[in-house]
Amino acid sequence: MKPTLVILAAGMASRYGSMKQIQAFGPSGETIMDYSIYDAIRAGFGKVVFIIREDFAEDFKSIFEPKLKGKIATDYVYQNLDAYMGKYPVPGERKKPWGTAHAVLCAKDVVKEPFAVINADDFYGKDSFKKAYDFLTKEVNDRTYCIIGYELKRTLSENGSVSRGVCEVDGENNLTAINERTKIYRNEQGKITYEDENGGLHEVNEDSFVSMNFWAFAPNVFELLEESFHKFLDANITNPKAEFFIPVLGDDLIKSGKGVIKVIPTNAQWFGVTYKEDAPFVLADINKLIQSGEYVNSLWG
Question: Is residue 177 part of a domain?
Answer without folding.
Answer: no
